[in-house]
Amino acid sequence: MLESGQHSGIEVYDCNLLANSTLADMDYIREHGIKAVHVPFFTQHSEATTDDIVEYSDIVISTNSLQSEDWVRCKIFANAIQSLHCLGLLRCFAIYLHNENELAYNDFYEKLIEWYFNHPLTLGYEVFNKMHEILQKMTSGVNVQYYYNENFGNVRWFLDEGAFLCFISDFDRFYNETSDFLKVFDIEDDIFEQLLAYQKNIICIPNNKYSEMLLDYDFFHYFINSLNNEYKPLKKIKHIIKISSGDSFSDLSDYAREVLWYGRRLVKTLSTSNPKFVTIDIY
Questions:
Q1: Quick one: 21 exposed, middle or buried, by C-beta within 10 A (0-12, 13-18, 19+)?
Q2: Whole-number Å distance between alpha carbons of 167 and 134
Q3: What share of the chain is helix, strand, coil (3-state, %, to 5)?
Q4: Quick check: helix, strand or coil at residue 263?
Q5: Angle (CA) 224 227 228, round 5°
Q6: Residue 190 belongs to a domain
Q7: Could you give the dihedral angle defined by the CA atoms of residues 65, 42, 6 and 243, in that order, rounded to the nearest 10 degrees?
Q8: Which residues contact 220 (CB under 8 A, 6 or more apart)?
């Protein structure tokens, strides 16, 4: 889907055994070695309270052709794509490397995940290792896959949203550490530094309503063209780009609700998703 130009709206759902479906038929289950876990049903963005009546779902976590360990790996990969690409944190680098180095999107994110797990002192390791622990417990039916942090309100978040909120909470550390991974692709120094600055400044974060950058490269139109599946070479044009997020949230729970929850389908995590918030002055 990324190769086809869908960069913002990818959602991945669990496979559920539904009553009276072919998938839930016992002969079919035995034939394909289907294993499911019976866990409490997770309602997205619900309050973290104890309900009087608990509903359950049966989530498939392995079959004859998919071991539970691979299910965990698939889930981590899907959540990485959703949190780091669809929500925008590393989308610019992934698109640039895909365009200029012919690096496949799945290769970029698989390499990134592997790099995080090989660097246990990074924030990326903390986030995805915690996710791994949650999903590993899930395969035994003893946990539910959601993220909760009272700083972001009394709300249970999807794991990809939880990862995004963790990275936003320690924004500079995330980019400082991840830039070590990004440097292995040997992007020209002047482009790399300005691309990193551009990538960081287009993310809508709490307490930041406005940013302004002096750039030598027209990243804004380069990525607009790429998102429209119209590749055009990056132009070297000295200019000042001014970006407004439209709103500034000092309260983390307000930010999480308005930008991530309500604004996800409008890609409000990226300030450049609405061109009216962007002004470019040729220098």
A1: exposed
A2: 18
A3: 50, 15, 35
A4: coil
A5: 90
A6: yes
A7: -140
A8: 198, 241, 272, 278, 280
| Distance, C-alpha 137 to centroid of its chain | 22
User: Which among 78, 104, 57 has a CA at the least distance from the CA of 163?
Assistant: 78
Q: How far apart are the first and last CA of the chain?
A: 37
Structure confidence at residue 50 (pLDDT): 62
Rounded mean pLDDT for each run of 10 residues along the chain, 283 residues in total:
90 92 96 94 78 84 96 97 97 98 97 98 98 94 85 93 96 98 96 97 88 94 93 96 82 94 92 88 88
Question: Which 3 state secondary structure label does DSSP give 90?
Answer: coil
What's the CA gap between 196 and 215, in Å, rounded? 11
Max intra-chain CA distance, the chain: 70
Question: Tokens at residue 116, please?
Answer: 């995080």
Two tokens, residue 31? 């034939």
The reported pLDDT for the residue numbered 52 is 66
- In which domain, by residue range, is 148 found? 22-204
Neighbouring C-beta atoms of residue 70, cutoff 10 Å: 13
**Mean pLDDT computed over every residue of the chain:** 93
Would residue 91 count as lying in a domain?
yes
How far out from the chain centre does Cα 151 lie?
20
Give the Cβ contact number of residue 215 at 10 Å: 20
Strands 56-62 and 210-217 come out as unpaired
2 falls within a domain: no
DSSP state of 280: E
How many structural domains comprise the chain? Answer: 1
Question: 């709490």: which residue's tokens?
Answer: 206
Measured CA distances, 54 to 42, 96, 117, 145 (Å)? 10, 46, 35, 16
Is 145 domain-assigned?
yes
